[in-house]
Amino acid sequence: MKIEKALIIDEPWISKIMRSEKTWEMRSTSAKQRGWIGLVKKGSGHIVGVAKMVGAEGPLSDQKMLDNQDKHHIPPETFLSGKFAKHRHAWIMSSAVRLHRPIPYTHKSGAVIWVTLDQRVSDALAADEAVKALA
After folding, report:
1. Which of 15, 38, 44, 46 could form a disulfide with 102 if both were Cys (CB 3.0 to 4.6 A apart)?
2. 5-132 is classed in which CATH architecture?
3. pLDDT single digits (tens) 107-125
4. Which Gene3D superfamilies match (predicted)?
5. Are residues 98 and 133 in contact, defined by beta-carbon separation less than 8 angstroms?
6. What is the band of 82 on the pLDDT scale with cuts at 50, 70, 90?
7. How many whole angstroms separate alpha carbon 33 and alpha carbon 51?
8. Percent of the chain having pLDDT more than 70?
9. Rounded to 5 degrees, what angle do the CA atoms 123, 125, 131 make?
């Protein structure tokens, strides 16, 4: 499996995604990306997992956010107060797994959402036992 992109996600959200507790990553815009992606723990310089991005939905109303709290894990008092007011697009993930060993990557200047992976990192991801088990 060839993985060429990785999504940067902050804690506690990335850990929840890799434990399959959270399947919606909430963002301020929609996304066209589909398929297998790397998961980068924000600020770590490492890809720590992979997931399959299967879709996007939004912008979501307050009611839709309330009805799907089990998928995005943002407390109602947070998004209803306006703190996450612009994060109303669900990027839908499935089959997330943690890598056996985090893989370092080169973080290019300006990358804040997506990272394009070089061949060395793509090869290292394909060789990881957790990723091989998904193929």
Report:
1. 46
2. Roll (2.30)
3. 888 889 999 999 999 999 9
4. Hypothetical protein (2.30.130.30)
5. no
6. confident
7. 12
8. 99
9. 130
